[in-house]
Amino acid sequence: DRLDYLVAALKKRGIYVNVNLHVSRLGGSGIAAAKTSCKGSTWFARELVESEKRYAKDLLTHRNPYTGMTYAEDPAVAMVELNNEDALFSSFQAAVRTGKELPYLDELKKLWGRDWEVSTNRVSEAFLTFLLDTERAYLKEMKAYLKDELKVKAPLASTQLTYSPVWSQKELDYLDTHEYWCHPSPVNKGWRVRQDPMVNAPEGNCVAWNTPRKTPVHPMTMSEYNNPYPNYYGAEGQPLMHAYAAFQDWDGVFEYSYDNRVDSEPDSVEYFFSMVARTDVLAHLPACAAMFLRGDVAVARRFVTVPTAEANWTKDAAAKWNESVGKVTPFDDASHATGGKLPYWEGLLTGIRMDLTGTAKPVDFDALPRPKDGVYVSDTGELRW
């Protein structure tokens, strides 16, 4: 009832809703499922896939008494994410790197059907393609279930681009990413937050890292972004991200989060992600809306489109895996596709796109704009870093 009322209240005020179908909910009956959310295994373990389907049906076909509509048909539900920060590829990689066993591993071995020891300790391109194919099969099944059976009208996203390669996610309606500057580490009672200003890191920051991830054909959102408290420079985060998101012509930026606790009007910050008591952040949100929604920041005049292909990525990932599994990034972007010839800071100067068909014209790197005297000026002349 509280969820129904909240969504209806948001809808009345023109505020849209993002629905996630799996974050950390337990859905299995095995011992592993009782101890973990089974991230990674949710993409292939039949018990967990069927559990997510039941959850999706119960939630999305539920009729909200305050709106008279189901969540599947309500236009206030702007988008649906299948699996938050969860993918087979990154979870399997982490399990190999740490020596831990992925839940429901026997089921994955049956899907592979070959010599398992060789496949995990020294992977082949075929094995990495198998991981991608397993992800694709899950996404295809879930998309068909949501669209054809549950009649969900909202566009669908897979998971975040830093967890699963774009090659398995590209068949869905849009792409999504998350990013944090000085994320708490470790996330437990002994957490710490670094005191670094992002503006002092033009060559490696949350803005630049994400500019090479968008394709020419997929909408892209950043559904989580924050400079977590108590970073002294938290005020810089949202204006920087919204300005360059507008410049790169992204399709949405979400602050994470407004409030993570029960008290909706706290006298102090109660959680490192909560913004409800952070006046240094909230004060800038009207300007962020003006930049991104009203168009106060113009879209880049030029877009550099980098051609790439799945075969190139699997070949490179297999070589790095066999050298050291920790060297493999679970995603592809335009910078990786060029072997680093396209620096991340290029996205502060001009628009960046990654062509997944591999047919785009090769990039003339010598002709790309460069920063002068440590100043990164957008090709519109509006943004100076």
General description of the model:
- The protein has 385 residues and is an alpha/beta fold.
- It is 35% helix and 11% strand.
- The chain contains 14 helices and ten strands.
- The chain has helices at 2-12, 31-35, 46-60, 88-98, 105-112, 116-121, 125-149, 166-169, 206-210, 237-247, 279-282, 285-294, 310-323, 334-337; strands at residues 17-20, 63-64, 69-70, 77-81, 156-157, 175-180, 220-226, 252-255, 303-307, 351-355.
- The strands form four sheets. A three-stranded parallel sheet has the order 1-4-5.
- Helix 3 packs parallel to helix 7, helix 7 (125-149) crosses helix 13 (310-323) and helix 10 runs parallel beside helix 12.
- The chain starts with a helix and ends in a 30-residue tail after the last strand.
- The mean pLDDT is 94.
What general outline do the C-alpha atoms trace? globular
**Gyration radius, to the nearest Å?**
21 Å
The run of helices and strands is: HEHHEEEHHHHEHEHEHEHHEHHE
Q: What is the rounded distance between the termini?
A: 47 Å
* Helix-residue proportion: 25-40%
β-sheet strand percentage: 5-15%
How would you write the strand order of the largest sheet? 1-4-5
Structural class by secondary-structure content:
alpha/beta
Largest sheet: 3 strands, parallel
Mean pLDDT, as a whole number? 94
Q: pLDDT below 50 for ≥5 consecutive residues: which ranges?
A: none
Oligomer description: single chain
Total E-strand runs: 10
How many DSSP H or I helices?
14
Summarize the SSE layout with pairings.
Elements: H1 2-12, E1 17-20, H2 31-35, H3 46-60, E2 63-64, E3 69-70, E4 77-81, H4 88-98, H5 105-112, H6 116-121, H7 125-149, E5 156-157, H8 166-169, E6 175-180, H9 206-210, E7 220-226, H10 237-247, E8 252-255, H11 279-282, H12 285-294, E9 303-307, H13 310-323, H14 334-337, E10 351-355
Parallel strand pairs: 1-4, 4-5, 6-7, 7-8, 9-10
Antiparallel strand pairs: 2-3
